[in-house]
Amino acid sequence: MSLSGKVAIVSGAAQGLGRAFAIRLAEEGCMVLGFDVKKEVLDVAGVTGMVADVSKRDDVERVVSKAAGMGEIAVLVNNAGTWKKTPVDSAWQQALDDWDFIMDTNLKGVMMLSRAVVPFLQRNGGHIINLSTYYVLPAKSDGTNQPDTDLYNASKWALNGFTDAWAKYLEKDNVKVNGMCMGATDTPMLRGLFPTKQLPAEMASVVMKAEDIAGQMMEIIASGRTGENFGAWVGEEITIGDQPPLHKRITG
Amino acid sequence: MVKLKGRNAIVTGAAVGLGCSYAKALAREGVNVAVCDLREEIHEVAEILRSLGVNAASYQGDVSDPAHVRAVVDGAQEEFGNIDILVNNAGVWGASVADDDLDKSIEDYEQIVGTNLKGEYLFGRAVIPIMIEQGKGGEIVNIATDHMVTCGTPYFCCPKLESCPWGDSPRPTGGGDAMDLYDAGKWGLNGLLYGWAKALAPHNIRVNAFCMGATDSHMLRGFHNFEPSDEEVASWMRAEDNAQAMIDMLQEGPSGRNAQNVNFCMGRPVQLEPAHDHVYVVPEQVRIGESS
User: Fold this and answer.
1) Would you call A57 an interface residue with chain B, using a CB distance cutoff of 8 Å?
2) In A5, A72, B113, B236, which residue has its Cα 20 to 30 A from A146's Cα atom?
3) CB-hemisphere CA count at 13 Å for B109?
4) Cβ A67 vs Cβ A82: under 8 Å
5) How many CB pairs under 8 A join A and B?
6) Mutation site for A-interface testing, chosen from B108, B146, B280 by largest number of A Cβ within 10 Å
7) In this structure, how many other beta carbons lie within 10 angstroms of the beta carbon of residue A186?
């Protein structure tokens, strides 16, 4: 399926991976609607930008209405995500606030945006990409599933349920649904974890580049595969590899 | 084997099905149990628990409601003095698909993810500071689903029974296409499982999950419109057998398995299998008694 002239929606497109995905899809000939809570999304070259919050229903409906007006929607990249430390012994009110902060964007937002877009994808087929993390694939290091990010971990694991069920349900409509599970990538989110907002030198030299992950996304779309989690690890070639057996497609 | 007598537990969703069986099995071991459920019958369950010779407290409410969670946990602490065991069992099932409309979907999200993931999060987060403060270790068990389990991972020690319906073709991820929110909520429990197990291992608090396949329960009978065939019922696992496996796991104590999804799959004996190798965490990080 050629994407040329089709509409692609990218959430969280102001910076980092989302920005790279939006730019790459535009280069591939898509009309890209990128949105973000950050207004820098209005300045991404070749991309129609909107300031909108994926955790807010009205914003989601506004985004999808705008995209539908641009043409035939063929790609949805559920990229917008948030991260914070959520220590297990934090105060009760903090625990409640943290649930909303993480889940409204990373899980409920993904659901709302997808629900709103799916009827358009069902018309002529298309692609949904859910941005996850290498935490949901077999651990190659001790850096996964961190002890002080229970909600972030849970929000990304939960996407497995969406990727799996949507791939099965939307097969009849030729809509492919996959997850991308990458390790450390040079993004503002990753840089933000460090006091100086810069990556330590030993990390900067090895982290993956957002543009390369965007390349992997295009490979996934071109492959026509569905219902898989695709990993990308620091220090390894970024590729989609051979199709794993059915029982390993989600679990790795 | 660790003795459970005299410990104090909370079991959520305990009016019927697995939760009720867990509560009764704990009471038979001499564990005081606080139980909660949406259903009014939860108070009758507390009467049964008392008749088994333990202290019991019952609370009617919704696990997705933070005020209810606090009432249960604070009530149990006041009643029993401390809390040693949390069985995060309450769960609901509902059909939801990728092209449901937004109104239905948001309602479904609040109910299904609200109960199956947020409810377990809230109970864990209410109990964890208490368990840490007590300094006596503890046990948290989340009840998940076999939809998250395949023959490949994380279950490695399958006895490969002749009766296994999957035979030589490994079982793929379950759940089908019409449970996206149910499956999302249950998959999300992995994030709590591994995060909590790592954070709590230095406090001698174990965190494990039971991934339940088809078990004769109120939920499963409801799935079959409360008219399952005798054949279907005969193929299901029995909640009482699973409750014994729960007791067996709790009796392992701090030296037992940690951060594990324990799989209970239809067509296999309902018993606690040996711990399996870790897949999604590095074992040293979840070893009880070592700092993470």
Assistant:
1) yes
2) B113
3) 21
4) no
5) 200
6) B280
7) 20
